[in-house]
Write a structure and sequence with these properties.
It is built from 22 helices and 22 strands. The chain is an alpha+beta fold. The chain has two domains: 188 residues, Alpha-Beta Complex (Penicillin-binding protein 2a (Domain 2)); 368 residues, DD-peptidase/beta-lactamase superfamily (Beta-lactamase). The strands form seven sheets. Strands 2, 3, 4, 5, 10 and 16 form a six-stranded mixed β-sheet that branches. The radius of gyration is 34 Å and the shape is elongated.
Length: 634
């Protein structure tokens, strides 16, 4: 009996041992043959995946010259767990990286928060410094290929934009980007980010226990090569852009020139501008803050974002609407006694005008830029009996004005483009509790009051008149590598609500203003039939400088195209605080037209005169003083 019990216990023990062995053997087989987790853990000790960043696409001007290129540089990475316990020569490494030992120590302290993960020590390392770093072989440190932008002509800061590190909002919005990636900011860099950025790749490298690269994993079989960004040919004429920026140096304003037959932007200047190289490399942060705190706002693209009163350039639109509506004929004359008087009794007011002949017909009124004439025209448009009320007349006027591209985005390929403002009946109802009449809005007749336009919209107006009633959507890119055509919207004609037959009268007035007698005589170019219209936009800014109250000078504007028939260039120049339109805007536009049409400058003395012209920017000086004082108090 006892023997039988002993055998039973022995049997149970054998069964238990057998089960345990089977479990262990099964687990071993699973780990060896099925589960690759431990294999992956083993590989992770020697293999690391690294992002391979592509070369960003270049940007060329319309003549094939580089506006933006990419140069090779490197990020220096560290895995602090791979740094030898004995340390390293921090002074020597800091010297190679062109940073202070203190900066290096600070970065390593940050890296210690995740000692097994790669951490960026410094960016924008040159190729020469990279070779030196590789030669001296600092364990735990390695380089990662990058590219940085460079600008051969040093022009077009706001036009081209820049490249900066993605922020948290962008990381949440787009899955394509990871922390540390770069993205286009503003200008072409932003508008064509998808085309320019290329596609990231990935490589797998084998490392020893000291963090040194031993070679490619599996001979690079798993690597994915990066795809370079697409090359873009812009519509900009680089030489003309550079010349326009020189003329606008030390001035505040914008210049936009368009090829009327295509809508291609030849020149886009926002002044003051900046050297785009300032926002590349390690100095980018300091340069950006300096530009940001400049009260003349060089980072602000006035060409597509600033909302200015169009001034007398807008009289062209009033004349065209009047002709279309039948309330104006080219031969109609109106008097001007140094202005336009309206209102009754103590409410009597006068909208002033400069001295010129009186009365005038439409052509003469355009040439002489008569305020009174276009007040009569505007009143006749919005009080036209067929609309039943001034409110409905203004609504119809607003519809006409909108067809010229005002009060809305033109739809260009500039992501920063703003709308401007064209007042509506509802706007005046809200402002005046429903009690207003044509006299309330009369300042709109001459592009003042509530009217606001961007310089690009006004350049587009010049193109519309040059084309006798239609425009192509202004755009900054001519061709994208690998694509046959741009977006179809850039090939579509956008017609105004004014018939083409009415444009010749307005054009004749603009031609007379330049070539016969008028406010645009300084724009004359022999043999080129330049057509133009000046504008002096009232500036209501008030400021105190050194305790003295002052009024800021008016803005100088000029709208033009040339030649009259088969026009090749339409241009708008807007100079803040420049005074009369004929004073500074006209000669700047004329010189740009001369350079583009004749490929030379025959008036070098005028170029020097414009460059040396000093305008009164006391308002901006006042703003800078206030800002600097507030910073000191902080």
């Amino acid at each position: 009996m006892e023997h039988r019990e002993r055998n039973t216990r022995y049997l149970y023990l054998r069964v238990i041992v057998g089960i345990v062995c089977a479990v262990l053997l099964g687990r071993l087989c699973y780990v060896q043959l099925i589960d690759d987790k431990y294999d992956a853990l083993a590989k992770s000790n020697i293999m690391r995946s690294e992002v391979e960043y592509p070369m960003r696409g270049e940007v060329l001007d319309r003549r094939g010259e580089f506006l933006v290129k990419s140069r090779v540089c490197y990020d220096v990475m560290v895995v602090t767990d791979n740094i030898p316990k004995t340390g390293f020569d921090t002074v020597r490494l800091a010297s190679i990286l062109e940073i202070t030992p203190e900066k290096l120590a600070k970065q390593l302290d940050k890296a210690d928060n995740s000692p097994h993960a790669p951490f960026l020590v410094v960016g924008y390392l040159s190729q020469d410094a990279k070779l030196l770093l590789d030669e001296e072989s600092f364990d735990g440190f390695y380089t990662r290929f990058r590219t940085a932008r460079e600008y051969p002509r040093k022009i077009g800061g706001n036009l081209l934009g820049y490249v900066g590190e993605v922020n948290q909002n962008q990381l949440k919005r787009w899955s394509h980007y990871d922390a540390g990636d770069y993205i286009g900011v503003g200008g072409i860099e932003s508008a064509y980010e998808t085309e320019l950025r290329g596609e990231k790749g990935v490589s797998y490298r084998i490392y020893d226990t000291h963090g040194a690269v031993m070679g490619e994993y599996d001979d690079g079989a798993l690597d994915i090569l990066p795809v370079k960004g697409k090359q873009i040919v812009s519509t900009i004429d680089g030489r003309l852009q550079e010349f326009a920026e020189e003329l606008m140096q030390d001035k505040v304003g914008a210049v936009v020139a368009i090829e009327p037959s295509t809508g291609e932007i030849l020149v886009m200047v926002s002044s003051p501008t900046y050297n785009p190289d300032l926002l590349v490399g390690r100095q980018r942060g300091n340069s950006y803050m300096e530009l940001l705190h400049n009260q003349r706002t060089p980072l602000y693209n006035r060409a597509v974002m600033a909302k200015f009163p169009p001034g007398s350039t807008f009289k062209l639109v009033q004349g065209l609407i009047g002709l279309q509506e039948g309330v104006l004929r080219p031969s109609d004359t109106h008097p001007c006694s140094m202005g336009y008087t309206y209102g009754v009794g103590r409410h009597n007011r006068k909208l002033k005008c400069h001295s010129h002949r009186s009365p005038l017909n439409l052509r003469q009124a355009v040439a002489e830029s008569c305020n009174a004439y276009f007040c009569y025209v505007f009143k006749d448009i919005i009080t036209n009996p067929k609309y039943g009320s001034t409110k409905e007349g203004l609504r119809k006027w607003n519809e006409y004005v909108s067809s010229f591209g005002f009060g809305k985005k033109l739809g260009s390929d500039f992501t920063d483009e703003l709308t401007g403002f064209v007042p509506t009946p509802e706007f005046y109802d809200d402002r005046n509790n429903g009690r207003w009449n044509w006299g309330t809005v009369i300042s709109c007749a001459i592009g003042q009051g509530e009217m606001e336009c961007t310089p690009m919209q006004l350049a587009n107006l010049a193109a519309i008149i040059a084309n006798r009633g239609y425009y192509y959507m202004p755009h900054i890119v001519k061709h994208v590598e690998g694509e046959e055509r741009l977006d179809e919207r850039f090939y579509k004609r956008n017609y105004t609500l004014v018939d083409s037959v009415h444009f010749e009268t307005i054009i004749d007035g603009m031609w007379r203003s330049v070539n016969v007698a008028g406010t645009s005589r300084k724009a004359y170019l022999e043999g080129w039939d330049v057509c133009g219209k000046t504008g002096t936009a009232e500036n209501r800014r008030q400021y105190k400088l050194n305790g003295v109250s002052k009024s800021a000078p008016d803005h100088s504007a000029f709208l033009s195209f040339a030649p009259r028939n088969n026009p090749r260039i339409a241009i708008m120049v807007y100079v803040e605080h420049g005074g009369f339109g004929s004073a500074i805007a006209v000669p700047i536009a004329s010189l740009i037209e001369e350079m583009y049409l004749t490929d030379t400058i025959k008036r070098p003395q005028l170029v020097e005169e414009i460059k040396n012209t000093k305008l009164n920017y006391g308002y901006y000086d006042y703003q800078q003083q206030k800002y600097d004082a507030s910073r000191e108090q902080e």
